[in-house]
Design goal:
Elements lengths: L10 E4 L1 H13 L17 E4 L2 H16 L5 H6 L3 H4 L14 H10 L10 H10 L16 E5 L2 E4 L4 E3 L6
């Protein structure tokens, strides 16, 4: 996990000089470019950068967990412009592995406009409402402490993986 770009959750930008400083901080820090939110590539002169910027990055991590690579990893590897790619709404690949609700949650986390992204409390509410993935003996039906993201197992809050059909956290 890359915490090199860690900063305050809310930054009020009051002018072009501050906007350039915030933008430059993102470029110079250890922030992984393919996980950087669109608003950090071109910071507006008068705006508030808030925790929904982190929701974008969390969406990139969720995408990677679901599909095996980050949504912009291939673009970065090819040398194409991630800054340009993130300005368009991400199309989540259709998958029969995951519920429509999880795919909608991912899409909402990856909204180009930070004002359209959910706050973390909404994400937690949505996760609590999700049903576990395909049933097998001994599976969890609730999301505490595990959430079903992988067809081969459950990703647990404690960091371990509970594999099908038994296994323990």
């Amino acid at each position: 996990m890359d915490l090199g770009s860690m900063n305050r959750a809310r930054i009020e930008v009051k002018g072009s000089r501050e906007a350039m400083a915030v933008q430059q901080t993102g470029r110079l820090s250890a922030c992984t470019i393919s996980y950087r939110a669109p608003e950090l590539f071109t910071v507006q002169s008068h705006c508030v950068i808030d925790e929904r910027t982190d929701i974008w990055s969390l969406g990139c991590v969720l995408y990677c967990m679901m599909f095996g690579e980050g949504p912009y990893d291939l673009i970065f590897q090819k040398g194409d412009s991630v800054a340009l790619a993130v300005q368009n709404q991400l199309r989540v690949p259709p998958s029969s592995r995951y519920s429509a609700a999880l795919e909608r949650l991912l899409s909402s986390m990856m909204a180009v406009s930070p004002q359209e992204r959910p706050h973390v409390s909404h994400i937690l509410d949505q996760l609590e409402g999700l049903q576990s993935a395909p049933e097998w003996p001994g599976h969890h039906t609730d999301l505490s402490p595990c959430t079903a993201l992988y067809p081969q197992g459950l990703v647990c809050v404690g960091g371990c993986t509970r594999t099908r059909p038994t296994g323990s956290c």
